[in-house]
Amino acid sequence: MSKRLVWRQWTRGIPLYVMILPGLLFFLLFKYLPMAGIVIAFQQYDPFLGYQDSPWVGLLHFKNLFAEQDFLLLLKNTMILSAFNLFLFFPIPILLAVLLNEVRVSWFRKTMQTLVYMPHFLSWVVIVGITVLLFATQSGGINQVLANWNLPRLELLTDMNYFRYVYLFQNIWKEAGWSAIIFLAALASVDPSLYEAAVVDGAGRWRQIWHITLPALRTTIIILFILRLGSVMEIGFEHLYLMQNSLNREVSDVFDTYVYRNGVMQGEFSYTTAVGLFKSVVGLVLIIIANFASKKVGEEGVY
């Protein structure tokens, strides 16, 4: 291939390179460059001494983490909330995408898509604030109505038995519509003639969904599920921190909130960096295992 042809092909792709540049810069600045700071997980880091002069302690911080009194509680809460996200939240966007795909009235489908996308653009501060206004024990609107009707109040914010379900419902309401976008994009690539042939063969709507729609989503579902396993230890600090109080901390305290209390509030930078590294290693191992299992059964993987 001549140099002129190579140059022509490269210049033809310049608009695409410009489009991906912001994403590349984001990952470079906020994902890859900060990885150099992992070294302080093996040091007793002192901001005044810096990386080079801070004393090395090896695996001391990891030993302290595993010996921490609350370690098993943090791990339990993190894994339970992750299981809620993986097995209860994850199927909802798939179901929503299938339902929207089945709507044949264009204006109604677009309206519904807009409505389910909108909550994604609200911050967790707003969503938690709305929840507090509605369900605060004494001043919440719904609880005041229940009290006026001589009905028992809903202790959604103070009873730890309700916390995980409130967390799940808020996640579904805020993110299900946005998460459905990628599944709708996958369905947009399905050849319409497949549905036409299915109708000719006498297949009803449910048969079309089972034999055409869902198989078209299978690869996307597997890849996204594997990627979600990589963030199984990342529950989301802001959401949980805003919902957390002294009455539900037993079920709401996870590694993210623990890192905030010890790293930001108490200045234990090395220790909390070790906690973050532990979380990342767990996510990496889960991705490798899930990807290997997916390839083993003949499905697609992330690499």
From TrEMBL:
Domain ABC transmembrane type-1: 75-290
SUPFAM superfamilies attached to this UniProt entry: MetI-like
Gene3D superfamilies documented for this protein: MetI-like
Keywords noted in UniProt: Membrane, Transmembrane, Transmembrane helix, Transport
Spans through the membrane: 16-42, 79-100, 121-142, 176-195, 216-237, 269-293
PROSITE patterns named in the record: ABC_TM1
Domain of life: Bacteria
Record localization: Cell membrane; Membrane
Protein's UniProt name: Aldouronate transport system permease protein
